[in-house]
Amino acid sequence: MTQPDQDAVASWTEPEGLSPRGTIVVIPGRGERPGVYERFGRRISGDAYRVHAVANPAEDAALAEEQVLTLLDGPKPVVLAGSDTGALFAAGLVASGRLSGASALVLAGLPTAAAATEAEARAGQGADADGEAAADGSSWEAELEARTACPTHRGRLAGPVLRRGALYEPVPDGWLDLADLKAVPVPVLGLHGAADTVSPLAAARERYAAAPHAELFSIAGGRHDAFNDITHRTAAATVILFLERLRLGTDLPPIAVREQL
Predict the structure, then answer these.
(1) How buried is residue 179: exposed, middle or buried, by Cβ count under 10 Å (0-12/13-18/19+)?
(2) Which CATH number fits the domain 10-248, given the four candidates 3.90.190.20, 3.40.50.1820, 3.40.50.2300, 3.40.50.2000?
């Protein structure tokens, strides 16, 4: 892995001796730094997909977009994978036509209008003098509960890869409208925790239903950080199956077919 600083692109490459099967560009969500996706990046790159995580667009949208555009020249297919507001940013780039080199989207914990309203309410209740969500023990524990049930990921979130309280900050203005899945022409894979309290599954399902080419997988008992939750192996496997089908064509032909017995 290469990660010189918190805003630099973090990269995980395919095993030595294997040709890359594609490029995955991960876009972090609220408060996240690229390094938070090390476990996801290592797992996906182990199957010979080259993985890069860019800067947080909620904090520097211009830098994140510049990094994404630079990475579009990587091995094909190139897929944008975003979590939380990173999912909105990825969808917005493609739906608006500002980015035309992506073959597909993989979206985790996609926020909805209802989720954005709830975040604003929580931020108003728990904000300190600097306008950030309070970081006392109770609010931090609540954020961890909302993000993940995985003890390993919780331990990682306690480090410099996350800015505490950011999950309750408002979704950036206009991002929900820009992330219009009806206007996304490429295949979309959605991963969403069935127990996601930040962005409830029912509302997310309505957004995905509007997309021309979308598949939505709910994760049983899953919380908001779908890529890094306790079911991260299942999430990664679902992504790999999608990528392998994408390599055969944008119509995503099935590879493994369950036979009726």
Answers:
(1) buried
(2) 3.40.50.1820
